[in-house]
Design a protein that fits this description.
- The chain is mostly helical.
- It has one domain.
- It has six helices and no strands.
- It has helices at about 1-25, 35-45, 65-70, 70-80, 85-105, 110-115.
Length: about 120
Amino acid sequence: MTGTLQTFTWLTAVIVTGICFSNLADTLNQPSPKEFLLISNGCIAEQNLRHGKCPKLLLFGVDASLYLYNPSYKAIISESPNDFSNIVQMREHMVQETHKFAEQKGIMLSDSYTSHWPKP
């Protein structure tokens, strides 16, 4: 029971942090990679609570439904923020991974599929 309580407490803290940073990101044109990291990790934690939906990721041009179930995306997010000079570079990497993931799953995506994502 203690483990469940600790997990719930941790998830609550992550969700609150994600909401706070989400509100901050709404006011800034280009969130830092650190903010992106916190919100993305919060979205992973929220996956069970919101059935895999994380609209906050759209602020960063990330297709949440592919991201939440794609280990390549999780690996990108867990990299040090110093590995990406800015959020635009991280977004470009995410777009590449989206097309790669779709190809591996036999899903045909046009180049315009990711072009409609919001630009940071």
